[in-house]
Amino acid sequence: MTAPQRLTDRKREAIIQAAIAEFRANGFDITSMDKIAATAGVSKRTVYNHFPSKEELFAEILSQLWARVSAEQESAYRPDLPLRDQLRPMLMIKMQMLADNNFLDLARVAIAATIHSPERAQNMVARMGERETVLTVWIRAAQADGRLKAVTPDFAAQQVQGLLKAFAFWPQISMGQAGLSVDMQNTVVESAMDMFLACYKL
Asked: Which residues form the HTH tetR-type domain (predicted)?
């Protein structure tokens, strides 16, 4: 990689880190691209060269956060392993992300930013949904192998993740409840798997 490219990458990372700090401290609407540029130590033009809009920048932050967490797991479908043994680590990774304070802070910012702007919400969701989740891909592979019933993979993935969020996301986001203990995280994951497999396992 050439020096100019490395400098560009460093500036992009500085912009992202500055944006995270500003969004967490001040919320989406109050944070400006000017303030992000100042915090990052770059020009406003440089910020816009990397990110055409504040929405794009925020969506990239959420996408990177999810990618960092997802990258830690081995997620390829295995025909030789019990479904439960494959599903558990994927749901535990999701649970860890839901317990991450950075993620929760940014999720609060995102919800506040989109609650009065359905169009903004749709744009952010579209950006986040550009690539399929690990769980969706896994469900499709298990169906192809004849081990899960025919159901839209994305629907089933959202369904089981919704079971986790009912305990480990929405109470924390909307009511300020403390994060779940490790024991409770395991209980929620095991129960979600029970329901998912009872419904869809062949």
From this structure: 9-69
